DNA sequence: CATAAAATTAACGTTGACGTTAACGTTAGC
DNA sequence: GCTAACGTTAACGTCAACGTTAATTTTATG
């Protein structure tokens, strides 16, 4: 049963049908197979791909435009496997591979700096928390001494 | 010279004047003092505050609505220092402090889970990179053997 | 096979986050 | 004190990312 209709996909990915069609419309999600009557039929692979999109969007805060570049890596990787034994020259193939590697490195750099910045904010917040809790302790001690 | 005009602020924070007025309009940035003629005059403190907003927005990917809740902590902290010696009761004061502490803890939880998710994506990407680089190595060895 | 449930396209509506323009007042430098 | 540069409000414009509705077709089920 490797066939899912749009509502199944929507449920599983936490999106609305409209959103899925919209993603297809702007090209961040491929147009799937259709039934005789024109109904979209998705595969499990499609769903996993869409989940990656949602993840990248939510976690990385990517806009849909940025997602296109992010996904090009994944796309290329797929293409790479699919056309493994076709007639493209070794040079061209090698070029594709290095390009993928470069894109990956770029993505990783972005991620690393983002993680680093978030960790800095985290430390800052933890400092503030520590100071606040210290203050509350002092405040309570003061209150105690007033009570006694 | 603790007086800056909107253009100075815009330059230093990397925003447009319109954006700054907009932030003021929707309440994520306080309305500053005005000159006799109605010109906005900002302090260094204002600028640092705005920088925090920009940072939170960019790094955390917060919407301006979410920023309001994020900033309420900072606001409360400020208020706390300002009204340190006024007539508010100790109980009310204590309540404010614990509320701040709770908000902080919430923010920290969000940050920690976000950082964790990003690190997972990072590891995934690094795995992919590793596999890809291995593949390229094999590819090159194969090419070498074809050449020889 | 009838009919309700679910899918399709197409078009207009909405919300957030500003950009742009106009019309006008303020300030700084010569 | 004049003028250019910079400020102000107010209103309309825009773009992304969908939501909503309508009108129609397809599919599943008693």
From TrEMBL, chains A, B:
InterPro entries: DNA-bd_dom_put_sf (IPR009061), MerR-type_HTH_dom (IPR000551), MerR_fam (IPR047057)
Coiled-coil regions listed: 94-138
Pfam families, per database record: MerR_1 (PF13411)
Any GO MF annotation of the entry: DNA binding
Domain HTH merR-type: start-end pairs: 3-73
UniProt name for this protein: DNA-binding transcriptional MerR regulator
Gene3D superfamilies: 1.10.1660.10
Gene source species: Paenibacillus rhizosphaerae
Record keyword DNA-binding present: yes
Keyword list, A-Z: Coiled coil, DNA-binding
